[in-house]
């Protein structure tokens, strides 16, 4: 969907026959996204786009960040991570419950410098989850401008507002103006 209307088609890592897991051992979203995109580009011989994302909670000095998916340790699922976050914030007053989702995309292709795209979505962390859609921390991320959590948004609205949607929109704008498809 994000590339619809552009003179390019995308395939997933699975569709490319690449069976590898790239360790996300960078210290920033940008480093982790680049590690994944460079590895897949090298293995496939094709340009690659990869992301890293997370939630940053104001009252936790920007944690969870790049560790969002591993918050609480191995074996903890989304529900468990949400419970743990709610517990960590139980004594935090409303004015300090702000947070944001961050997504950084890295576009890598043979022997060229990577290009990066960033998207953010600010909201407030609720005291209990609401909604059944989305994944991760979506049931806790409340968006005052919509009056609902990310988990309560329909797919089209989420794709427009989300951190990942904004990063993909920036990538799409760049591709349509700057990228020379004839080079490949």
Helix/strand-derived class? alpha+beta
Rg of Cα set: 18 Å
Going by CATH, the architecture would be: Alpha-Beta Complex
Count of DSSP helices?
A: 4
Integer tally of domains: 1
- Stretches with pLDDT under 50, minimum 5 residues: none
What would CATH call the class? Alpha Beta
What do the pLDDT scores average to? 92
Helix content: 25-40%
- Strand order in space, largest sheet: 1-2-3-4-5
CATH-defined topology: Maf protein
Order of helices and strands: HEHEEEEHH
Strand coverage percent = 15-25%
The tally of strands reads: 5
Categorize the overall geometry. globular
The main sheet comes to: 5 strands, antiparallel
